[in-house]
Design goal:
single chain; 81 residues; mainly alpha; 3 helices
Length: 81
């Protein structure tokens, strides 16, 4: 997103310089994008890590259920009987 805004701004400046466009002084200047604080970045990273851990736990749970289902319904279970 930031890269696109930067590229558009450079294209505009290039257009103004190449075409000798008159830019009035009262034209509003673009505000720089708001930067996140370190605390906000850390909180988002922590949230992503929590999601990854929950996803990994859910995948392991599903894997274990499939393994149990397979072992109960497979040839191994029939041989034990």
């Amino acid at each position: 997103m930031r890269h696109q805004l930067y590229r558009r701004e450079l294209e505009y400046v290039d257009h103004v310089l190449r075409n000798n466009v008159d830019v009035s002084e009262d034209e509003p200047r673009a505000e720089p994008p708001r930067r996140s604080s370190d605390a906000e970045i850390a909180y988002r990273m922590w949230g992503r890590e929590q999601e990854r851990e929950a996803d990994a736990a859910a995948r392991e749970d599903v894997r274990q259920r499939w393994h149990d289902f397979y072992m109960e319904s497979s040839i191994f279970e029939r041989k034990r009987r």
